[in-house]
Amino acid sequence: MLVSAGSDGIARLWQLPVAKPKRIDSKGAARVFVVSHEGNRAASAGADKIVRVWTLAEGKLVNALPPLKVVQHLGKPVH
């Protein structure tokens, strides 16, 4: 399995050796794309600071986690 993501807002899941990828619309430029250890889910994150969790079998969005608000405490970020 190979996952590619880019500034076009589309992540592509390649089930090797199949030549055509499954599209996963990451809703914006994906900067990070990780696959779970089990290989059944993936998460993407990008410029909008939202982490999206996907099923790899169907390429469906199952959760979108909004960015955390960073609070300053004694001059250090606290999450």
Class per helix and strand makeup: mainly beta
- SSE pattern: EEEEEEEEE
Instruction: Indicate the overall shape.
Output: elongated
Whole-Å distance between the termini? 34 Å
The number of helical segments is 0
Q: Tell me what the CATH architecture is.
A: Beta Barrel
For the secondary structure, the number of strands is 9
- Tally of individual domains: 1
Question: What number is the mean pLDDT?
Answer: 76
Strand content: over 45%
Strand order of the largest sheet: 4-5-6-7
Give the biggest sheet.
4 strands, antiparallel
What name is given to the CATH topology? Thrombin, subunit H
- Percent helix among the residues? under 10%
| Overall CATH class | Mainly Beta
Low-confidence stretches: none
How large is the radius of gyration?
Answer: 15 Å
What would you say this structure looks like, in words?
The chain has 79 residues and is mostly beta strands. It has one domain (2-78): Thrombin, subunit H (Beta Barrel). 0% of the residues lie in helices and 52% in strands. The protein is built from no helices and nine strands. The protein has strands at 2-5, 10-14, 22-25, 30-35, 41-46, 51-55, 61-65, 71-73, 76-78. Strands 4-5-6-7 form a four-stranded antiparallel beta sheet, with no helix packed on it. Strand 4 and strand 5 form a beta hairpin. It is elongated. The model has no long low-confidence stretch (mean pLDDT 76).
